[in-house]
Amino acid sequence: MSVCVRVSAIESEDTTSQRPLYTTISAESVFAVPIAQPDSFVHTTVLENPQSVQDTILPPCDIVFYKTGKLEYCKILETSPTTISYKMCDYQDGPTIVVNKSDIHKIRYANGREDIVDSKQPNVTNAYSKGKKYPLATVSLIFGIVALGIIVLFGYAIPSLIIT
Question: Which of 21, 24, 31, 73 sees the fewest Cβ atoms within 10 Å?
């Protein structure tokens, strides 16, 4: 099966100069190709592979700029303080991709807004981390136990020896 694309020739508005005729391919993209045929010329091109013709109307996509320079055209689903999850723009039924924000430089949303991702991560404290050691705390604990021992010894033992 072959697909036909019709290319029509149009004339330049300035007829005084020696400008050649130009062809237009679509409203989105204009290719300037000089041709030497008259105004009524119509050229038909037959494409061998119809799958190579893609639709130029794409859904609006977000763009993720990685720090490595890589660009991803995607639809962002969720952002968290540490990660971003998205689906590829041309494969919406595909897997959800989750990346760390530390790998991303900025995000350009489909509506034109841009977010520059701050590389500073929030400080996460571990509840099971070791506490600080204070060397004087150990010494004061030992002196406190010795002082209690002396008080107990002089409070009960010495008076009972004196009474008897």
Answer: 31
